[in-house]
Amino acid sequence: MESLRKYLTNKNLYIANIVSGGLMILMALICYSGVGNLSNSGSSWSDYASALSNSLSGLSFACILYYIDLLLVILLVIGWGLKIFYFKEKKEMTVIPFVISVVALLFEIYGVSTVSALSSVARMDFGGMLSSAYNLQNIESMKIPFIILFLAHISYLIVAILFMRMDKKGESVNSTKFEKGTENLIKKLQTFARDPKGKKTLIGIVSVCAVVLVGCVGFGLYNMFKKTPLDLVSDVQVTFSGYDGEGSATIEGTADYDHTNADITSFIYGVTYEVENNGELSNGDEVTITANYSKETANSLKLDVTKASKTIEVEGLEEVYRTWDDLSKEDQKTVLDRTYDKVMKKAKDTTYQYFGKETITVNSLNQIAAYYTYAKGSGEGSLKLIYKADITSTYDGDTVNHVEYYMATASGLKPTKDGIGKISVDVSYLYSQDDSEQEAIEDAEDYRVDAEDKIDIEK
């Protein structure tokens, strides 16, 4: 502490008071000059724009000086306080600057929010302006506190200059008549303090003053640094729709916030939500919902975003038959039986003679190839089967054997609460040639189906 005392001289602190007072005067001149430039700008838009730009630059610089001065005043209060309460230099030449510095500090902390709002205006920070809308609307009410702040700075500037001159000449405030009045006042206070009731009263007054001082400083610092906690995801509702494997998520609702605060409301409306793998969701997936927001705006609004993402399980998507194996054995049998019956009917209706009565006998009907496709977007599957039919035609006593190939398409394969549901089966003529199963399959794969969709089905 002795090394600190070496630098913590009255002269150094007086110089700091003078610098602080000079900064305040410079800030006042910059603001006055900016207003004057706007008032005296020409009638043309370019002149006004130039004056406005210069004024905003000056205002931004003044705000920077304000924060520098705030730091300097805090150091002054600490410095004078150490001299008085730690080094026991309880003289008028230390007490008076300390008291004025404390007053300046209280009003300077009180004005921080307004200066922050003005800084946002100067920097054209619209997010900051939104967050400081209340302070900008009530800037007129800050006129008196800023005047008191200015006078406090001028006061300790004058006091510092006066005391420096007196200190240089070896004079002391104690040599004036003021000292005698002060001594008499101190004696009265000492007498009052010796009385038990008076002592309690003084302790109470000092305690109240200390509490008020600490409370004012604490409240100012609290307002400077406090942030409003905000959870962006816990209160939003997520619903899933679409088909399993290609589902989408819809976000509804907003975060729980203070709806009376227009600035936060504007911020909330700017929040967007992103769902991991949206459009490709499947039941049972664990997906992350992330809130996208402007961190710069959140900081300017003093918002502490405590939660911006959450994980949720996908459910409620419509089930689909993406592959043939997704169908139950019972549903598979139903599809195969219906297609077989349709193809059999088609084969029996085959005609080789156009005159007279012809008898058609289907000796055998066998499935020789199968293909399964799933239509993304419709949620429906489709099964294509190639059948080979051995047919005998009897006409006018003559018997002729034929081999025919048919393509059967079972479409609309989709799960319902009643099982496979309604199936549409279409049968078309494919190919006709003896002993040519492979050619029939190749012909189908050339024009009707994709070879990659081929599957194996138990015959």
UniProtKB/TrEMBL annotation:
Q: Which UniProt keywords apply?
A: Membrane, Transmembrane, Transmembrane helix
Which residue spans traverse the membrane?
Answer: 12-35, 55-82, 94-122, 142-164, 202-225
Q: At the top level of its lineage, which domain of life is listed?
A: Bacteria
Per its record, how is this protein called by name? Uncharacterized protein
Species source reads Faecalicoccus pleomorphus
Q: Which taxonomic lineage is given here?
A: Bacteria, Bacillati, Bacillota, Erysipelotrichia, Erysipelotrichales
